[in-house]
């Protein structure tokens, strides 16, 4: 039963998936419609934390709701907070039937669909309809799909990373460009799209979170484009439960979902022979949307699909990156001074200048460190801690160095007639919580801009009152 | 009672000394009031220039290994 055994793996797994907060803001009606599709239920279930999943599985096969007190008596005292959090999160997703304070049970729609998802059966086509094999053309191979997805995805990232450097890489499609602009990852600057500081931060994230970040933005735009959010979400979930390398028919798709095909092709989530084709193949980007598997095969031809790590960082700030991937090289270039480049190796150093350049672009020290950690070479994994402490500390120090001064705009109130006057006004400002600095000896204080109108009004009322 | 508009700079004492020196340059005065060891009040429209010049001044204290 849900008890907290505070291992680090568990905690990492417990980190909330980016999609869940979005789902929790949706209305119960939309969510219930979404839960009519078994594939959606299964996909959301896969995004949940370990405790939530455990709870759902415990409740799934109960025909009647169970007393909430019975359930919570299984929980140890240390696990209580975790348990309550999990329940609250399930309730926000409207997984639970409404009276969860007294009795715990899954909502009927969710329960039925989830059971279907696990045991099969039912006639809903929410997992997609495989296309009849075509005798003339064979389905694309998994390798071809991987290559296609990778090419699409790297085009986007490469376009972003080189937008400021004057190079002209291949442009992604108009739809992708629009999405990048809307999400604030790129912005128009002198008639050209330029990467923004959140764009730089985006580049250092893992492919999985990058993908979801863009998809979330896509979901935000759905209503403006007068598309049905439930249709869009359920299509994404359908894709995420599909089998890589298999062709699916578009017959069972709704109009909204057919309209999405073009967008998803652009992002590299699926492949079609022609735009008018009656069938489509999801790529690895799509089928891993709700799983913990890496969404992209490693680009390097070394074949080791599992280990993504390629960076060796030494205590002397030297960095060796075993990669032949232009995108990874370009990303490293954001915060590393590259010294030599070989066909499969980039050698550089983390220097004050290179880190400063990154900081100026809006990248934080923590992001650099987490990128280096994520992509550390397997050889580095033997080290405890993973990255040399000297280098980590120095990167943080370089960041602090840039923040030697803090500035706040506001007003200095001074030349008070008497100590009582000063204290009276100061007290009022304190109540508003706008005092940034004060000095009783000099009888003056500094208040933020926001508080000024109030303070001025207060003083005017007071002087007006005493005058009259 | 008087209210003076400005920007409050919070800094360490070393940086404050640099700010005081910068302020003494002819025709470039920006400090409205020297509040205490860690705070100075400067003119709001000069904030960006002050940041730039402070940056340049601090930069003189570092050296680079790059040839």
Automatic annotation (TrEMBL), chain A:
It comes from the Eukaryota. GO terms for biological process: nucleotide-excision repair; transcription by RNA polymerase II. It holds the Pfam family Tfb2_C. The keyword Transcription regulation applies. GO terms for cellular component: transcription factor TFIIH core complex; transcription factor TFIIH holo complex. Its main location: nucleus. It is found in: Nucleus. GO terms for molecular function: ATPase activator activity; double-stranded DNA binding. Residues 393-459 form the Transcription factor Tfb2 C-terminal domain. The keyword Nucleus applies. Keywords: DNA damage, DNA repair, Nucleus, Transcription, Transcription regulation. Belongs to the TFB2 family. Component of the general transcription and DNA repair factor IIH (TFIIH) core complex which is involved in general and transcription-coupled nucleotide excision repair (NER) of damaged DNA. This is RNA polymerase II transcription factor B subunit 2. It comes from Russula ochroleuca.
Automatic annotation (TrEMBL), chain B:
GO terms for biological process: nucleotide-excision repair, preincision complex assembly; transcription initiation at RNA polymerase II promoter. It holds the Pfam family Tfb5. Its main location: nucleus. SMART domains: Tbf5. InterPro entries: TFB5-like_sf, TFIIH_TTDA/Tfb5. PANTHER family: GENERAL TRANSCRIPTION FACTOR IIH SUBUNIT 5. In NER, TFIIH acts by opening DNA around the lesion to allow the excision of the damaged oligonucleotide and its replacement by a new DNA fragment. In transcription, TFIIH has an essential role in transcription initiation. When the pre-initiation complex (PIC) has been established, TFIIH is required for promoter opening and promoter escape. Keywords: DNA damage, DNA repair, Nucleus, Transcription, Transcription regulation. One of its GO terms (cellular component) is transcription factor TFIIH holo complex. This is General transcription and DNA repair factor IIH subunit TFB5. Belongs to the TFB5 family. Coiled coil: none annotated. It comes from Russula ochroleuca. Component of the 7-subunit TFIIH core complex. It is found in: Nucleus. Signal peptide: none annotated. The keyword Hydrolase does not apply.
């Amino acid at each position: 039963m849900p008890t907290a055994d505070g291992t680090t793996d568990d905690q990492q797994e417990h980190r909330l998936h980016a999609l869940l907060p979005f789902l929790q803001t949706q209305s119960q009606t939309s969510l219930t419609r979404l839960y009519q599709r078994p594939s959606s239920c299964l996909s959301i279930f896969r995004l949940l934390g370990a405790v939530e999943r455990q709870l759902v599985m415990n409740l799934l096969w109960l025909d009647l709701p169970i007393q909430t007190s019975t359930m919570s008596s299984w929980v140890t005292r240390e696990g209580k907070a975790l348990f309550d959090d999990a329940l609250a999160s399930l309730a926000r997703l409207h997984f639970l039937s409404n009276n969860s304070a007294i009795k715990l049970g899954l909502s009927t729609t969710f329960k039925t669909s989830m059971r279907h998802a696990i045991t099969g059966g039912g006639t809903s086509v929410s997992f997609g309809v495989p296309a009849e094999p075509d005798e003339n053309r064979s389905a694309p191979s998994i390798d071809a799909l991987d290559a296609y997805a990778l090419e699409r995805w790297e085009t986007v990232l490469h376009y972003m990373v080189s937008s400021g450097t004057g190079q002209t890489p291949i442009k992604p499609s108009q739809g992708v460009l629009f999405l990048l602009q809307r999400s604030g990852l790129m912005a128009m600057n002198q008639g050209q799209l330029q990467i923004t500081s959140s764009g730089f931060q985006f580049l250092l994230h893992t492919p999985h979170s990058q993908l979801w970040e863009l998809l979330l933005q896509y979901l935000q735009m759905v209503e403006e484009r007068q598309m049905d959010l439930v249709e869009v979400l359920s299509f994404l979930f359908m894709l995420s439960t599909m089998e890589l390398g298999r062709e699916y028919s578009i017959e069972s798709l709704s109009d909204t979902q057919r309209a999405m095909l073009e967008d998803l092709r652009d992002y590299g989530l699926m492949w079609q022979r022609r735009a008018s084709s009656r069938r489509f193949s999801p790529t690895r980007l799509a089928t891993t949307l709700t799983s913990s598997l890496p969404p992209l095969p490693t680009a390097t031809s070394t074949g080791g699909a599992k280990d993504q790590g390629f960076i060796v960082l030494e205590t002397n700030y030297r960095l060796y990156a075993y990669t032949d991937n232009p995108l990874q090289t370009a990303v490293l270039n954001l915060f590393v001074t590259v010294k030599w480049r070989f066909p499969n190796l980039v050698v550089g150093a983390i220097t004050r200048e290179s880190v400063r350049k990154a900081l100026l672009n809006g990248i934080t020290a923590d992001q650099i460190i987490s990128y280096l950690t994520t992509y550390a070479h397997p050889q580095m994994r033997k080290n405890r801690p993973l990255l040399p402490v000297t280098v980590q500390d120095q990167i943080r120090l370089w960041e602090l160095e840039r923040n030697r001064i803090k500035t706040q705009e506001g007003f200095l109130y001074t030349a008070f007639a008497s100590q009582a006057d000063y204290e009276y006004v100061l007290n009022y400002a304190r109540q508003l919580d706008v005092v940034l600095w004060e000095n009783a000896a000099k009888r003056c204080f500094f208040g933020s801009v926001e508080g000024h109108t109030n303070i001025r009004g207060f003083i005017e009322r007071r002087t007006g009152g005493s005058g009259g | 009672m008087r209210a003076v508009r400005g920007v409050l700079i919070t800094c360490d004492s070393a940086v404050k000394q640099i700010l005081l020196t910068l302020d003494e340059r002819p025709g470039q005065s920006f400090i409205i009031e020297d509040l205490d060891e860690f705070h100075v009040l400067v003119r709001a429209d000069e904030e960006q220039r002050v940041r730039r010049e402070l940056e340049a001044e601090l930069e003189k204290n570092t050296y680079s290994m790059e040839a």
